[in-house]
Design a protein that fits this description.
The protein is α+β, with helices and mostly antiparallel strands. 16% of the residues lie in helices and 35% in strands. It contains five helices and 18 strands. It starts with a helix and ends in a 10-residue tail after the last helix.
């Protein structure tokens, strides 16, 4: 069902429809409908998060890991939602703060503050192929380790099945709250992911060498230079995803990755 058809259904049932283009557009909405794949769902959640609007994902993409229904189910699902026959699944999000360092008079450092929120992950990665980035990583104010790698991912449990999974990170149930820190192709002996408490913060500072790129849920948000720091932890805001049935996380995982169709042994 296309956007125009959704509009016809809603108007016939006494509901107003708007096209949400910025976060402030979601103020006062009862429901935000995402038409697309997982990337569209991430964008919809970003637009709805500040006002805690529920998001219903309709899968027009390929994988559709975050979406709830298929296009043919939309009319009946809208009826169920406005009848109150649904539940909201809360998903942890990340609060990301970026502190670009600038040198002021007499060597004093001043900071300009940038802020982002992510459902899946934050990625600090190399800007150019053939190079690595050097990153100093602290956890809750204490230095942990210096990484030389293609990049570093800090993911939510929801994001643990996205880029972090491709970088050999663990799969974490989305019902949990945790930070998953996974290096990307590290040039060092320690190449394991860490699962941290949601009360902890990860501080990533770009060291000397190549600049880095800050990606938030797959979108290039900022170019990081030497001395700039990214601080990431759990956000107080949860994404509210509309669900109609109790679906086991492990069954969704098996279905989306085709695990039941393949032999997992030789």
């Amino acid at each position: 069902m296309a956007f125009d058809e959704i509009g016809e259904w809603c108007r016939a049932n006494g509901f107003e429809v708007i096209n949400v283009l910025k976060s402030s557009d979601s103020l006062g909405l009862e429901l935000l409908i995402s038409l697309g794949g997982d990337g569209t769902m991430l964008r919809a959640i970003d637009l709805s998060l500040a006002y805690q609007v529920p998001v219903l994902g309709v899968n027009f993409g390929h994988l559709g890991y975050l979406t709830e229904i298929e296009p043919a189910e939309l009319s009946s699902s809208l009826e169920r939602f406005f009848e109150g026959n649904y539940r909201l699944e809360e998903r942890m999000t990340l609060n990301i703060e970026v502190y670009p360092m600038t040198v002021a008079d007499r060597g004093r450092a001043s900071r300009e503050h940038l802020h982002f929120v992510a459902l899946n992950e934050l990625v600090v990665e190399k800007s150019f192929s053939g190079n690595v980035v050097k990153l100093s990583v602290g956890i809750s104010g204490k230095h942990f380790l210096d990484y030389e790698a293609d990049g570093l991912i800090v993911a939510t449990p929801t994001g643990s099945t996205a880029y972090s999974f491709s970088a050999r990170g663990p799969i974490v149930s989305p019902s949990l709250s945790a930070l998953v820190m996974t290096p990307i192709s590290p040039h060092m002996l320690f190449d394991r992911a860490l699962v941290l408490a949601p009360t902890e913060r990860v501080e990533i500072t770009v060291m000397d060498g190549q600049d880095a790129t800050l990606m938030v849920d797959g979108i290039n948000r900022h170019s990081l230079s030497m001395g700039e720091m990214v601080s990431v932890g759990a956000s107080p805001l949860s994404a509210n995803i509309v669900k109609f049935a109790e679906r086991d996380f492990r069954e969704i995982l098996k279905s989306k990755f085709g695990l039941g169709e393949k032999k997992m042994y030789r």
